[in-house]
Amino acid sequence: MRSSSAPTDPTLRALLAIALFTYTAQNMLNVSIAPLARALGLPEWIVGAAVSLAAVAVALLSQFWGRRSIAWGRRRVLLWALFLALVAGSLFSAAVWMRSAGLLGAGAAAGAIMMARGPFFGSAVAAIPPTGQALVAETTPDQESRVRGLSAFSGAISLSIMIGSLISSALGSWWIYAPVHATPWFIVVALVIAWIWIPRDSQGTATASPAPSPRAERDEGAAAASALLPPRVSWHDPRILPWIAGVFGMFFAAGVVQITMGFLVQDRLGLDPREAVSTTGLMLLASATGGMLMQLVAVPRLRWPPLLLLRVGMTTGLISLSALAVASSPVLIALAAFFAGVAQGLASPGFSAGASLSVTADEQGGVAGIVNATGAVTWIFAPVCATALYGWRPLSPFVLALVLLALSCASAWLHPRLASARR
User: Fold this and answer.
1) Which of these, 160, 187, 241, 294, is most buried using a 10 Å CB contact count?
2) Distance between alpha carbon 345 and the CA centroid of its chain, in Å?
3) For the whole model, what pTM was predicted?
4) Do the Cβ atoms of 203 and 230 come closer than 8 Å?
């Protein structure tokens, strides 16, 4: 087969490791944040607001980072992003410690947690997916290799959810605050990997001036500043919009599931906050396992085109979310979560590859930003809506997610532009 498997590229391997450690840190926070809020005496809406603010940052900055990963070079983008993530994780840890020690009031603690998990951490992680996806597009010339490469990159993030869930469950069963205090150390590992293994690319790339002088090579900042940015990609671009419509409901549903799972297991299974950390981690682990198996094992072997991956994933998601909405035993919740992960593990690579293949080579940084921002936009609304609706009626966030998922599923099957897409 002609396709160069993207994970054989040494820079991409380093990017996969960076994504693994960074998203492990993020998911350790996701698993523990709902029980943590109750343990710290903070209102439930703080959880949704923190994640929504992070999503705002990701939505605003994804295309910014994606285009600059090409113009400035991947090393510079990643080092800045990981430094910001380290500051955010440390601030979160300090706020939790001070609140638990009685040194910080509820309002100040809520504000610090929202800022740390919100715009600080969101701004940082916004850089990683578009940087990785643009590199995959650069190293995969055809449809089959593009699907495989993007699936591998998504699989690394799904693996991080598994690892984050396991570590958070283990640490949380020992001490409820342990996952939060461990988070910055995972960012430190990612930062070290970026510093050592991401090469200094003289990337102001194809659009920069011809051969850089030794002086310019020493001054990476000046070289980056003189580089021309690649073109923006519009959200309304008719090549991209049908793919967004076909997957939007899936990302919203995933946000509802992740942010309410900590409350759901407490209420349906009758658990206290400490027990809920471990159980929530196991349920999110089941979901991540489904996604990882699809992205790293099934998708490369199935060799399905992007549109088929999207359609099968969206249909599976509709069925699994319907089951999760009414599941009341640990086994049924875990099974529904697993198949929700399977659904996302099929639909996400289909969406990413389909959107990427729809645009030209110099638009890959922009479209990678749009792809990453699409999920983030749903997370702006999903956590706040889910937590507010859950406090009103526990079933209501699932009803809303099912309606949006059904609309996206219908679009994936019926949209005329997708129907004529390359199969």
Assistant:
1) 294
2) 12
3) 0.76
4) no
Q: Which of 198, 243, 203 is nearest to 367 (CA)?
A: 243
Give every CB contact of residue 108 below 8 A, 6+ residues apart in sequence.
95
The answer to whether position 223 is within a domain reads no
Q: How many other CB atoms sit within 10 Å of the CB of residue 260?
A: 27
From the number of C-beta atoms within 10 Å of its C-beta (0-12, 13-18, 19+), residue 206 rates as exposed
More confident call, 184 vs 117: 184
Alpha-helical runs (H) found in 293-363: 299-302, 306-326, 330-357
Residues 313-324: tens digit of each pLDDT: 999 999 999 999
Q: Is residue 208 part of a domain?
A: no
Close Cβ partners of 380 (under 8 Å, ≥ 6 residues apart): 52, 55, 56, 59
- Extended beta strands in 54-156, E state: none
- Lookup result for tokens 């601030």: 91
- Domain count for the chain, please give it: 1
Q: Please tell me whether residue 17 adopts helix, strand or coil conformation.
A: helix
Identify whether 210 is part of a domain: no
390: CATH? 1.20.1250.20
Of 379, 415, 364, 384, nearest in space to 134 by CA? 364
- Between 211 and 53, whose confidence is greater? 53
Structure tokens belonging to residue 91 = 């601030």
